[in-house]
């Protein structure tokens, strides 16, 4: 039995976890806040947490990156991709006029997770009133629950179809995201190595802090990978939070940490005075892979 901490039932995280763990016996521990999703596994070495980390439209989920880097020490054990399909959810009777047509001027307020909301800005701008109030909450599932429990009219949520069904609400407009192909990358984090799946493409995530700010420092770091022809898939700078203007670099490498070539590159970076912290070396699963498995199962 695997124990997994994650956001509430009906969130994108919940849908993604159910696809990832489709063939396993899982106990889900749902938390309203992402901080509790992290802390619950930080305090229990036998479980994992499901963390949304990056989105096609909105990019990095900075809050979650910061938790991984500054607040907890939880190695990344796996990565997978899941489509974030967002929908306008509420009660049909509150949106239709006397002719049975949608009247979007009836929308006074919309509620969602900030990342989900920012995936749908074009829809909000084009269809909803200019002065529509926007409220951010801790998950899309939470926004749908709030709309269900609100006595007041004209409040709608942006969330998953699963959350609409769970709460007995209507999916009023399907797929309200600004771009099709909206996907979120998820990390499975925890202290226990994850061995539940066959191997896949491996990736390694590291944090590099430069010794001091000198010309060409980042170039030197990157060249340790470049001349070895090691492929990087992502690089991002984030504040160290120690002083203004001080950054670390988050780097993803398309190699396992077990590969000698990567170890040599990391030794070279350390030799020039950089501090390297490995956040994890883990298998990556595509959405197609997981869906194919589901169909075979
Ligand atoms: O609120 C949810 O449904 C979540 O799972 C959180 C979250 C996120 O934090 O990025 C996950 C995926 C979506 O892209 C939007 C929100």
UniProtKB/TrEMBL annotation:
Domain Prephenate dehydratase: 2-191
Gene: pheA
Molecular-function GO terms, alphabetical: prephenate dehydratase activity
Annotated protein name in UniProt: Prephenate dehydratase
SUPFAM superfamilies in alphabetical order: ACT-like, Periplasmic binding protein-like II
Highest classification ranks of the organism: Bacteria, Bacillati, Bacillota, Bacilli, Bacillales
Catalytic activity: prephenate + H(+) = 3-phenylpyruvate + CO2 + H2O
Gene Ontology BP annotations: L-phenylalanine biosynthetic process
Pfam families per the UniProt record, alphabetical: ACT, PDT
The species this protein was found in: Paenibacillus montaniterrae
UniProt-listed Enzyme Commission number(s): 4.2.1.51
Cellular component, GO, one term: cytoplasm
